[in-house]
């Protein structure tokens, strides 16, 4: 009669950090709380896993969980539910979905979370504010701070209407109830003023979380928010799932911004994940914008989202006037029409600032031979190389490869090399020649690389009276330039003529946003839009300066054509070194789709037809309902996982794509 030691055996579904669309069952002799990080053997390797749930099982063959890494879970049950939803919705491997929302140093099995103290000392917020609200702001706060449960609400506030101050009062309301707030912003490094204002009000209760911070700093903030040591977190898209003990409100600032969507790997929209999170947690979410996305406007229209408006600018100034300059018969000087140069001159004479908005950095977008057909192109992407004057390099803006600038044509050996088109660097040089006495500030990815260069540029702009600003879309986000009276937009035509539905929406948003930077002082500001399509109906609509009307007319069109946001879209992306491999792969896939249930376009080359040596092709799928799209994608993925061809291409799914 020996003593029998009955070892307990518990079974768990574990998500593993590998690109597979499934979870795996492991066992342990220990009880493990769902959401805990573990190390598991996968093949011969040790991988990071996260326990999703305990399952009932008895006699199944499973491997032992190698190690339980932390004493407490990194995700709560509710968070696991949302992450599982995201994995299903975007048809992306669950292990990668979970990894996206963990601080980098917790994404491997070597680091262990250090012990956390939970914080009880919730500091009471200071009840004094530097600004008294306007009537409209007060009304907005009254409605927004009383929202209960899941009530997604669009805060549509024209540029300069004071949305930040409204957020601040709503945050205050939550702090008074001992709750935490998550404030998402598209690119915090580009818009320091939101952070500054929130930090000025709430001081040590505020933390930041974005990619410009070191992993160590991010980890620290992640922990502080979880323990309640800080109650307000301002973060970019990877912060969408940051845990807090009592999350009471989510705010998504500039909800229309394309940078909420991740384009590589797990192609999720932080805005949409945040909306789902609010729904599961049954808490309100505020989506703020002066140029709301068509998707959000449709939901407002359908009464699924609430609407609160701020229609007046704080300064009570008239918004700037739009004028469209037909440049068909015009000879341009570095992209500028003579009338635009005259307008800049007049603005400078009044001791005001002028801004040129152009979405191309570098000196010139093309470098060619005028004697033969040669054009400088990237070996691995086939796209035109951009000439950069400062670095004296030809640079591929897709893969960042850099090449020397040849003095002779590599094809015909003549010296007849020339540039085509204009970029920010060229404008800077031309304008310096035209206005030698005037300070010129160029703001693009190249001029703001160094830490704090953005802040010092912004400070210099604020301190200067009459000056010229040149910038890409980086310059149009949320900045306040009180002395700016003239904006010249010089390359909107791509947006006007593009076949891609997202392009026109973005063009409209950019023009309205750029206009919002101007005319905060005396209300005589002008936005001059250079175009070869001066009669384009969308441009004419925008000219009236009313974004909502512009958006409504596009929405009406989309509705009539059953296009998104009135239908639901996904792209199956294929990439491989051979065009034909992609086409064969997608053709075969296409044959399995029931064409009665949806519209399929493709295989077509992606806009970015080649990238880093791989050709890119798309199969675009549109379905009338979300459920149908989802079902279809599920079928397709099970076909793909079994298909022999699927290891010849790298394929991925992009649900609700914003780039083509
Ligand atoms: P938006 O984000 O809506 O474009 P901001 O929040 O940047 O607008 O506010 C625009 C400007 O108005 C900022 O300089 C801000 O400090 C100021 N402002 C906002 N609300 C008030 C107020 N109630 N009284 C005075 N100034 C305000
Ligand atoms: Zn040549
Ligand atoms: Zn390249």
Class by SSE composition: alpha/beta
Give the count of helical stretches: 17
CA radius of gyration:
27 Å
Oligomer description: single chain
Shape: globular
Ligand identities? adenosine-5'-diphosphate, zinc ion
What is the mean pLDDT?
91
The low-confidence runs, each spanning 5 or more residues with pLDDT under 50, are: none
Q: Spatial order of the strands in the main sheet?
A: 9-10-8-11-12-7-13
The N- and C-terminal alpha carbons lie at a distance of 72 Å
How much of the sequence is in beta strands? 15-25%
Specify the biggest β-sheet. 7 strands, parallel
Please bin the fraction of helical residues. 25-40%
What is the total tally of β strands? 28
Report on this structure.
The protein has 660 residues and is α/β, with parallel strands linked by helices. Helix content is 29%, strand content 23%. The protein is built from 17 helices and 28 strands. A seven-stranded parallel sheet has the order 9-10-8-11-12-7-13, sandwiched between helices. A six-stranded mixed sheet has the order 5-2-1-4-3-6. Helix 1 crosses helix 7 (270-281), helix 3 (135-144) packs across helix 4 and helix 13 (501-516) packs antiparallel against helix 15. It is globular. The N and C termini lie far apart (72 Å). The mean pLDDT is 91.
């Amino acid at each position: 009669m020996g003593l029998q030691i009955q070892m307990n055996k518990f079974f768990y579904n574990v998500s593993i950090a590998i690109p597979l669309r499934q979870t795996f069952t492991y066992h342990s002799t220990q009880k493990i709380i769902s959401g805990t990080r573990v190390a598991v053997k996968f093949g011969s390797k040790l991988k990071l896993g996260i326990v999703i749930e305990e399952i009932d099982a008895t006699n199944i063959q499973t491997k032992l969980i190698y190690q339980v890494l932390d004493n407490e879970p990194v995700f709560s049950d509710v968070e696991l539910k949302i992450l599982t939803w995201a994995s299903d919705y975007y048809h992306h491997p669950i292990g990668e979905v979970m990894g996206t929302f963990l601080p980098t140093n917790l994404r491997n099995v070597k680091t262990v979370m250090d012990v956390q103290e939970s914080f009880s000392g919730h500091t009471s917020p200071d009840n004094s504010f530097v600004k008294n609200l306007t009537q409209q702001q007060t009304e907005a706060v009254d409605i927004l701070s009383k929202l209960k449960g899941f009530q997604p609400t669009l805060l549509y506030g024209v540029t300069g209407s004071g949305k930040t101050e409204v957020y601040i009062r709503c945050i205050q309301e939550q702090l008074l109830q001992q709750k935490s707030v998550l404030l998402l912003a598209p690119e915090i490094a580009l818009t320091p003023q939101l952070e500054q204002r929130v930090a000025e009000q709430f001081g040590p209760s505020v933390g930041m979380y974005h990619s410009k911070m070191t992993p160590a700093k991010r980890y620290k903030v992640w922990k502080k928010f979880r323990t309640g040591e800080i109650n307000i977190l301002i973060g970019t898209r990877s912060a969408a799932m940051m845990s807090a003990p009592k999350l009471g409100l989510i705010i998504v600032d500039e909800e229309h911004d394309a940078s909420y969507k991740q384009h590589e790997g797990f192609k999720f929209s932080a805005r949409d994940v945040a909306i789902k999170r609010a729904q599961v947690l049954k808490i309100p979410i505020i989506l703020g914008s002066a140029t709301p996305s068509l998707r959000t406007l449709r939901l407002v229209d359908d009464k699924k989202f609430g609407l609160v408006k701020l229609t007046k600018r704080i300064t009570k100034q008239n918004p700037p006037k739009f004028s469209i300059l037909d440049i068909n018969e015009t000879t341009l000087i570095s992209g500028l029409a003579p009338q635009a140069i005259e307008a800049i001159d007049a603005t400078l004479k009044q001791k005001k600032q002028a801004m040129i908005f152009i979405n191309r950095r570098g000196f010139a977008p093309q470098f060619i031979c005028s004697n033969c057909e040669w054009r400088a192109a990237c070996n691995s992407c086939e796209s035109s190389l951009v000439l950069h004057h400062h670095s004296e390099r030809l640079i591929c803006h897709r893969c960042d490869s850099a090449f020397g600038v040849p003095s002779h044509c590599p094809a015909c050996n003549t010296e007849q090399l020339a540039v085509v088109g204009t970029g920010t660097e060229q404008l800077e040089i031309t304008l310096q020649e035209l206005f030698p006495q005037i300070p010129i500030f160029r703001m693009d990815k190249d001029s703001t690389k160094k830490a704090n260069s953005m802040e010092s540029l912004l400070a210099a702009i604020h301190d200067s009276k009459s000056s010229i600003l040149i910038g890409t879309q980086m310059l149009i986000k949320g900045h306040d330039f009180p002395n700016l009276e003239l904006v010249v937009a010089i390359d909107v035509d791509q947006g006007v003529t593009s076949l891609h539905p997202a392009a026109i929406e973005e063009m409209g948003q950019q023009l309205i946003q750029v206009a919002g930077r101007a005319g905060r002082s005396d209300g005589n500001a002008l936005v001059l839009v250079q175009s070869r399509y001066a009669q384009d109906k969308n441009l004419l609509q925008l000219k009236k300066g009313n974004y909502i009307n512009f958006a409504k007319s596009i929405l009406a069109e989309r509705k009539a054509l059953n296009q998104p946001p009135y239908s639901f879209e996904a792209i199956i992306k294929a990439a491989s070194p051979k065009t034909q491999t992609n086409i064969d792969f997608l053709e075969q896939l296409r044959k399995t789709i029931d064409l009665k249930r949806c519209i399929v376009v493709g295989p077509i080359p992606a806009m970015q037809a080649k990238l880093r040596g791989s050709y890119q092709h798309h199969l675009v799928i549109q379905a009338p309902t979300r459920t149908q799209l989802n079902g279809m994608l599920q079928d397709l993925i099970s076909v793909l996982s079994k298909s022999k061809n699927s290891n010849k291409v790298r394929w991925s799914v992009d649900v609700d794509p914003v780039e083509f």
